[in-house]
């Protein structure tokens, strides 16, 4: 069991941003047929999602979320000594997108910054990474940035995922505290399922694969650069491994479902989340959902649903939150933390694009 526990480190703010563009499932009537779209909506609970513009990236969304925290909480940028960006949707193959964000946020040179390549479990893994850095260094404040632009990796003709994935980015500020605060969790991996959710081309294993569209065995059209998901395998994994790990966490921490005010789970789809509630004996009222309006935003799902649920509430009230991320990898984890409602910011809509980062020709690299 990869169990972790950190004392005297707290989540001091959570923020999320989404693109302004709204794509509704009804927009796919012509392509997939009204009956098929309505069936999808019924099973997934998704009515619409957000989609980035051509040059808008996950880092743009995370930047806006981070700036929101820094300005709202009046954070001294020099006090932020670590930045970790977790996503599959990076700006470039190199350098690390964290370095770009470091520049944009105006952070000090003494701030360590790096990327981690994870998807649906990014937030839970990210908490472990950030807390580990803080617990073993003089870093008192750190930023965890998680985001994804999966709409850029899906084929609009692929009815299995074209209406499923949305774009979003979140920022989480962590800091050391003298308060009685702890962050605990369990992390797991099943590498045998690496093909279950995959975009096969574009990495260094398959650099020059054709961009031709194929009719895949599941009856959907996509290229090898598009995201492919084996739905049945992912479903079987989710409803077995995920609840088992939550129960393992409860046993390890000597807690039960009654000890938590909120269950902020990955926004997979309505059917899966209902199944998890049933298997774990949870109240659906305590498992908030944002997927009806934002789809499945992968890495940003957990902080997004927290911001969506509590972001407009200015009351000072502490929540004991159980968070669970699961999916691509296959990778999953569960963790708990106390978060004060007043530290949760409302979701921001943005068209922000880092124009300087758009490089179409060699001379663009010379622009300052």
TrEMBL record:
PANTHER family with a match to the protein in the record: 3-OXOACYL-[ACYL-CARRIER-PROTEIN] SYNTHASE 3, BETA-KETOACYL-[ACYL-CARRIER-PROTEIN] SYNTHASE III
An example molecular function term from Gene Ontology annotations: 3-oxoacyl-[acyl-carrier-protein] synthase activity
Domain Beta-ketoacyl-[acyl-carrier-protein] synthase III C-terminal, chain residue ranges per copy: 252-335
Keyword field contains Oxidoreductase: no
A Pfam family this chain is assigned to: ACP_syn_III
Alphabetical UniProt keywords: Acyltransferase, Transferase
Protein name: Ketoacyl-ACP synthase III
GO biological process: fatty acid biosynthetic process; secondary metabolite biosynthetic process
Domain Beta-ketoacyl-[acyl-carrier-protein] synthase III N-terminal stretches: 114-185
Signal peptide span: none
UniProt cross-references to InterPro entries, sorted A to Z: ACP_syn_III_C, ACP_syn_III_N, Thiolase-like
Biological source species: Bacteroides thetaiotaomicron
């Amino acid at each position: 069991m990869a169990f972790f526990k950190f004392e005297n480190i707290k989540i001091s703010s959570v923020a999320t941003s989404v693109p302004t563009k709204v794509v509704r499932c009804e927009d796919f009537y012509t392509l997939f047929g009204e009956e098929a779209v309505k069936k999808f909506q019924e099973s997934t609970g998704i009515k619409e999602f957000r989609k980035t513009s051509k040059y808008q990236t996950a880092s743009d969304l995370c930047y806006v979320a981070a700036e929101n925290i820094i300005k709202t909480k009046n954070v001294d940028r020099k006090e932020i000594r670590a930045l970790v960006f977790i996503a599959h949707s990076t700006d470039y193959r190199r350098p690390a997108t964290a370095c770009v964000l470091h520049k944009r946020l105006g952070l000090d040179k003494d701030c360590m910054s790096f990327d981690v390549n994870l998807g649906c479990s990014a937030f839970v893994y990210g908490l472990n990474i950030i807390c580990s850095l803080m617990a073993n260094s003089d870093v008192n404040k750190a930023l965890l940035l998680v985001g994804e632009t999966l709409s850029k990796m899906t084929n609009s003709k692929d009815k299995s995922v074209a209406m499923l994935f949305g774009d979003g980015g979140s920022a989480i500020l962590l800091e050391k505290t003298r308060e009685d605060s702890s962050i605990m969790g369990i992390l797991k991996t099943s590498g045998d399922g690496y093909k279950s959710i995959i975009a096969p081309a574009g990495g260094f294993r398959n650099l020059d694969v054709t961009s031709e569209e194929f009719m895949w065995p599941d009856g959907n059209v996509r290229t090898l650069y598009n995201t492919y998901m084996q739905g049945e395998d992912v479903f079987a994994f989710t409803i077995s491994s995920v609840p088992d790990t939550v129960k393992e966490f409860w046993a390890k921490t000597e807690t039960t479902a009654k000890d938590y005010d909120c269950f902020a789970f990955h926004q997979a789809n309505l059917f899966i989340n209902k199944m998890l509630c049933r298997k774990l004996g949870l109240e659906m009222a305590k498992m908030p959902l944002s997927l009806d309006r934002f789809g499945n935003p992968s890495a940003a799902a957990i902080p997004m649903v927290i911001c969506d649920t509590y972001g407009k509430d200015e009351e000072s009230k502490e929540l004991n939150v159980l968070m669970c991320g699961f999916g691509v990898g296959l990778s999953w984890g569960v963790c708990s933390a106390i978060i004060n409602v007043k530290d949760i910011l409302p979701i921001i809509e943005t068209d922000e694009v880092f124009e300087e980062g758009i490089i179409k020709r060699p001379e663009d690299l010379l622009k300052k």
